[in-house]
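Notebook entry, structure prediction.
Reason for the run: the old model in the group folder had no record of what sequence produced it. Starting over properly, with the input documented here first.
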Amino acid sequence: MTKPAQLARVRNIGVAAHVDAGKTTLTERILYYTGASHKIGEVHEGAAHMDYMAEEQSHGITITSAVTKAPWRDHTLQIVDTPGHVDFTIEVERSMRVLDGCILVLDGVRGVEPQTETVWRQRSRFQLPVLFFVNKMDRPGADFDHALAHIRERLKAEPVPVTVPVLGDWAQGAEPGVIHLIDRTLVRFGGDQGRDLDVSPCPADLWERAQGHREALLLAAAEYDEALADLVLAGEDPDPEALRAALRTGTLAGRLCPCFGGTALRNIGVQPVLDGVIDFLPAPLDRPPAQAIRPDGGHEEVALGDSGPLVALAFKVQMWEGRRHVFTRVYRNRLRPGDQIAFVAADGRTVREQVARIFDVDAGKKTKLDLAEPGQIVLLGGLRFATTGDTLCNPNHLLRLERIELRAPVLSLAIEPAMGTDPDKLLEALDKVEQEDPTLKVEEDPETGQRLLRGMGELHLQIVLERLEREYGVVVRSGRPAVAVRETVQSAGTGEVLFSPPAVADQRSPDLRARVALAVAPRTRATGNAVIMQPRYLPEGVQPSQVQIQSVEQGVRRGLAAGPLQGMPLEDVEVQVLEVELFERASTTDALAAAAGRALARALEAAGPTLLTPVMAVEVVVPQDNLGTVLGDLQSRRALIRASEARGADVTIDCEVPLERLLGYATDLRSQTQGRGQFSMQFARFDLV
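New structure, fully documented this time:
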């Protein structure tokens, strides 16, 4: 049996951040200091334990989420290292879905960056408790207080400092370390790569500098413990364990975010973060039960543990050594090799499968298991159909947990097999990478017959092409990236159609006849489509069946899937069905759907259809000396400059730019700034340009 005492000693956490903030560097130190790894692998050397893919090592970034385990203070940490680049945000989304808490890493110079905000929204969707590690505090311009203010201002969260970094000029030449505000100690990191801790009472001069942070810590903790509040108001020093208990209460409630400072690359400040994970982040049993939906539409609570039929969530598919494997978190009961499972697929079908093998995972290595227990993240072999978001259940007790939200691709490449490459082998390889990555789509252009590879950005598609060649031996020729567009309307318009096709000779088939009148109008950008079904039904007094009403709405929604200009989906359009005329048995569901679709097409033509292009929220960081050149170039790309902020020798530019104008921008920015500039982008909305 999985005892509550055992689960209380588990922490299922993720490490997430903006690209290049130091997530993987921090994770490497965590593995080293916990003894899970015997050496520190550096990202810049392509030797990080968690970046095991060849593409990760060559590009120096995390591309896929990696899972590992580490021991600390008689606890087991189950750690997921996630990508920071926005092109791979689905990896963060599906990891957050199965985590209990997370560490968000900030750059000490830049504070909260665009992808940090995206990760924060993903964390908020699943209400995960979080602690912050403010990294790179040894860099010029790093400011711990500024990072805390950024958290408060941009994330609307309440940061609570726990360790304050003592680095460089801040301590006027003192040995690097951190001030622990709960224990009132100075912690220095020596020995083999920072492994040995030297903990001593904090010197009076340094403690004086940290008084403001200590006061903030006490006031935050006092909110969650009345006895502690009385002590603080009386000016007395509370017991450290009482402070930790109060901070844990606030963190689990999602109201407080403990913050730690340091620099992972220089091995400073990491061990207190590990202590913070144990002290403040939740054990699996501290999380509320998951909510599941039964086939009859009712709801059921799924509490973590042994009691009740099996419930597990498949959150990622990965081809491992040429075979299909499924990353899964077990919520209820157990899984063994040979067990029969069932799930309700996205299209509503019930699928039954058998688990052939179960593996424990350590980044790029796997070890066979005989049993998967509640709370564990494991790798399942033998499942041919289960995919991202499916709920694996006991076949006699089907349930559906909340599915993982997927994002639509915004960029496409026309691809074809290079000379000497078997087209069938290419199709087989594309099917495998598409199963792994739900933000990747392979489609055929109906007009040109070209095969299109659609993804989240240039880097995303580049990595896929590299993997096709390395893993599957498939060389692909590709064209210039094309931007996915949408359609909308600029004004109001109406359409009316009497659907009455020529009668058929077969007397057993009734004549089809239906009339639909409707109106369309534009909606506010990025608010989606709306179909308003409040029509007048003719003849007067006739009551349509529910099936007939649904068929009219289905005809409208099918029409919204393909606009009149390029057959692209419509966005931000309101459709109001005004009249529906029924002709007894002739008004079949097909006739009503066809009449609605044709009426919509006429209304769209009359409403000034136009194209929408993806607009990206972009952050560009450049040296002060290159600011004028970069701004001029951005304006030539139709950028809308929203703000700029100077931080030391760099300037951060916040702007919005059409995606098509950003193709190849990374190369141009490097040439304008002698390789010192960088940018990040994320999808904002479809808009007129």
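Summary: The chain has five domains: 4-286, 290-401, 411-482, 491-607, 614-687.
The old model has been moved to the deprecated folder.
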